[in-house]
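Hi all, a correction to my earlier message: I attached the wrong file for Hemoglobin. Here's the right sequence:
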Amino acid sequence: MTSRPGEESRPTPAQAIAEGLDAQMVRRVVHRFYDQARQDSVIGPIFRKYVADDDWPAHLAKIEAFWGASLLGTKAYSGRPMPKHLAMPELDDSHFMRWLALFRNTVTEICPPLTARLFIDRSERIAEAFRINISMHRGEELVFLPPLKREPYPRAGG
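and the right structure:
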């Protein structure tokens, strides 16, 4: 895939795997990210509302399977996350922006550079697809929907 002027090309899963991406790295990313996300002041309340404490192990396993399928080509994931997100009336751009900021920070800390870029690229495309589908589901106008802005990583108290 070619990049726009001034952008780096998108890393491939094969490049990330050569750099060390494996199921254990996916697991570390997922667990670290969701440990932080559940405590976050913006997205934490949504996670706590929709995923009961007792359901977290199964939820994390499903998310690991999702990322494994997306980045490693495993066949372990079977699910439909969109309907669950469509059922969250409070979900808006502020939640997607925070999710992405926390996710970027997590993968940048844990992963080698190409692998972090691959995770970031996929997460941004997923977030945009989700918000567009949610907006369509709500009957909102999409013609002038700008891309999500990048929120800086929230420090203490965020």
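Sorry for the mix-up. Residues 28 and 95 are 22 Å apart (CA to CA).
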